[in-house]
Amino acid sequence: MNPTPDAGGRGLAGVVIAVDGPAAAGKGTLARRLAAELGLPYLDTGLLYRATGRRLLDAGADPRDTLAAEAAARSLSPADLERPDLRGPEADRAASAVAAIPAVRAALLDWQRGFGRTHGAVLDGRDIGTVVFPDAPVKLFVTASDEERARRRWLELRGRGVTAELPAVLADLRARDAQDAGRAVAPLKPAADALLLDTTALDAEAAFRAARALVAERLGL
């Protein structure tokens, strides 16, 4: 996928930047800021799976039910992605469960590709660089230690008024990691040509500067 000149002269129209990594590594914050910096649309693909899982929870259905999960994925609307209850341990577990179902991933794959191909985009998720856009010119894999990611998620939950114990958050995070990495379809792993970024010791600003430098080097900006 080759850049074509955009209105701002950056030459980034049509470029897709894939940002993958486990939960609470900071990939969402990075991807959102990169999109704003580069003038590209942004998509948090994890919201698609979270919204699918939430639809099932609302209906009292099992997120592991293949038929129900596929139906929920195919019936998503933009409004589903704006719900305020798509974060938290319950939503995390439901999202991980539906993401392991091949029919759900197939239902959402075209949606993601269509979004990125329209004008280019920065997309974050778990399989953007390996499955959704394996030909993306820039692929970042953002990670951090389990303990640091759990601390960040715990602070995020506290900030939203959600009561949670740090050991439980760490256990939930590790369980989700294992499920995401061990699923048969589109497991969580870096693409062979992904640029690795460990944010364990970086604050948000330092992580953004490091990511921006990696993107600029890969794109020759």
Automatic annotation (TrEMBL):
Pfam family, any one: Cytidylate_kin
Protein name: Cytidylate kinase
Organism: Teichococcus coralli
GO CC terms of this entry: cytoplasm
Location in or out of the cell: Cytoplasm
Enzyme Commission number(s) from the entry: 2.7.4.25
Keywords: ATP-binding, Cytoplasm, Kinase, Nucleotide-binding, Transferase
Family classification: Belongs to the cytidylate kinase family. Type 1 subfamily.
Main location: cytoplasm
GO biological processes: pyrimidine nucleotide metabolic process
GO MF terms, alphabetically ordered: ATP binding; dCMP kinase activity
InterPro entries tied to this protein: Cytidylate_kin (IPR003136), Cytidylate_kinase_dom (IPR011994), P-loop_NTPase (IPR027417)
Cytidylate kinase domain span: 17-205
HAMAP family: Cytidyl_kinase_type1
Binding-site residues for ATP, renumbered to this chain: G21, P22, A23, A24, A25, G26, K27, G28, T29
